[in-house]
């Protein structure tokens, strides 16, 4: 086990060093470093525990894992860029570990002077209060994690309403990590109950090592993805959003639409209003080809049409049946299809043609193209090569 502890410490230290030597460090990197340091401490404590159980080791074994949950929550909220004034409330996440630390410290160092045998007995057969502190408090975080998953789902939906390229700011991995933490808490509770009531003959220390391994996997997974994760402001920057329609003549057309601002504040857009706006969106895309901009945002289109991003999003969703992300990428796929069908473009790689069509990564090109057509770009190109050869 000492060898495994050492290997874990080395790997986690590698992540910390990598974060510090990055050219562009982010706010969320702080919490990645703290999470890795927390687990390193736990591995060091476990190494000492294998030699001797002391009051200090007993204390650290019980409280160090409890720091991981609030650190992960804050990391996730920072990634989502929760409102800054909420940061003071995040200290409440550390209330469970503060209460647990205070009680165990008082019990070990003030009210009792446990012998080695008594301490080992307390470790293997904790009292009810110890169970409540070390097992009940983590259950509280399950509710926080479930609420976090809802926010992550809302976030994923929101970015597809606002941006045409979401891979650098997508949080599927963060949602998976949250479920992993929930599973770890439930497994911990069930395992300790089974061990405590001897339903299954299992060493408590062996089970703790198993939980430690799961925590290591979770931190590794979070660090691996978190290092490359961008927040919206880091990748796109902040843009001002107009909340009102403006009476204007749209670019590339002589048509103008007169909008009643007060009407939309109370009743929203009518189907006729949305149809007129949608026609302008289509005209703008077909003439200016805004979809070729890799970082195109809903705000960019809204500003070009001099309307609010809220009304534009409502229009695109209602008239096309797609969020902004899918709507823009459908144009990019159509553009890429034309390039793949063109014999003169075959000297270029599919990746370069994808970039020319407004896509920003190879993964996105393949995934979105297959989603739209049912086949990959290379298969589509080969198909048209055969059609050209047959026509010749």
- Counting DSSP H or I runs of 4 or more residues, the number of helices is 17
Would you tell me the structural class of the helices and strands?
A: mainly alpha
User: What is the CATH topology descriptor of the largest domain?
Assistant: Rhopdopsin 7-helix transmembrane proteins
Largest sheet features: 2 strands, antiparallel
Order of helices and strands: HHHHHHHHHEEHHHHHHHH
- Biggest sheet: strand arrangement: 1-2
Domain HTH araC/xylS-type: 279-383
Keywords: DNA-binding, Membrane, Transcription, Transcription regulation, Transmembrane, Transmembrane helix
InterPro entries: Homeodomain-like_sf, HTH_AraC
Protein name: Helix-turn-helix domain-containing protein
Please explain how this structure is put together.
Residues 239-267 have low confidence and may be disordered. By secondary structure, the chain is mostly helical. The longest helix has 35 residues, at 128-162. It has three domains: 2-235, Rhopdopsin 7-helix transmembrane proteins; 240-321, no CATH class; 325-392. The protein starts with a helix and ends with a helix. A hairpin with a 6-residue loop joins strand 1 (248-249) and strand 2 (256-257). It has 17 helices and two strands. It has a two-stranded antiparallel ribbon with strand order 1-2.
């Amino acid at each position: 086990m000492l060898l495994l502890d050492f290997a874990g410490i080395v790997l986690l230290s590698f992540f910390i060093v990598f974060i510090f030597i990055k050219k562009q460090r982010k706010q969320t990197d702080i919490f990645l470093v703290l999470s890795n340091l927390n687990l390193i401490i736990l591995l060091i404590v476990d190494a000492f525990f294998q030699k001797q159980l002391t009051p200090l080791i007993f204390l650290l074994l019980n409280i160090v894992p409890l720091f991981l949950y609030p650190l992960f929550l804050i990391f996730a909220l920072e990634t989502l860029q929760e409102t800054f004034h909420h940061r003071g409330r995040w200290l409440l996440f550390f209330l469970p570990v503060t209460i647990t630390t205070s009680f165990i410290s008082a019990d070990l160092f003030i009210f009792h002077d446990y012998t080695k045998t008594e301490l080992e007995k307390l470790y293997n057969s904790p009292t009810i209060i110890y169970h409540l502190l070390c097992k009940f408090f983590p259950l509280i975080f399950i509710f926080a994690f479930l609420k976090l998953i809802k926010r992550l789902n809302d976030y994923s939906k929101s970015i597809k309403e606002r941006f045409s390229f979401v891979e650098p700011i997508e949080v599927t991995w963060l949602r998976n990590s949250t479920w992993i933490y929930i599973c770890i808490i439930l497994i911990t509770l069930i395992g300790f109950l089974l061990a405590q009531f001897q339903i299954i003959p299992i060493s408590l220390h062996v089970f703790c090592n198993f939980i430690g391994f799961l925590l290591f996997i979770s931190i590794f997974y979070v660090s691996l993805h978190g290092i490359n994760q961008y927040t919206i402001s880091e990748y796109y920057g902040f843009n001002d959003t107009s909340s009102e329609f403006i009476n204007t003549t749209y670019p590339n057309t002589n048509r103008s639409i007169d909008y009643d601002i007060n009407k939309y504040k109370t009743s929203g857009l009518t189907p006729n209003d949305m149809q007129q706006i949608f026609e302008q969106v289509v005209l703008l895309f077909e003439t200016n080809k805004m979809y070729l901009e890799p970082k195109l945002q809903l705000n960019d289109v809204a500003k070009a049409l001099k309307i609010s991003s809220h009304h534009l999003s409502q229009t695109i969703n209602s008239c096309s049946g797609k969020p902004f992300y899918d709507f823009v990428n459908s144009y990019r796929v159509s553009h890429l299809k034309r390039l793949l069908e063109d014999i003169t473009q075959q000297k270029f790689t599919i990746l370069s043609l994808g970039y020319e069509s407004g896509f920003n990564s190879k993964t996105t090109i393949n995934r979105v193209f297959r989603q739209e057509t049912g086949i990959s770009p290379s298969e589509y190109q080969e198909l048209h090569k055969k059609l050209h050869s047959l026509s010749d």
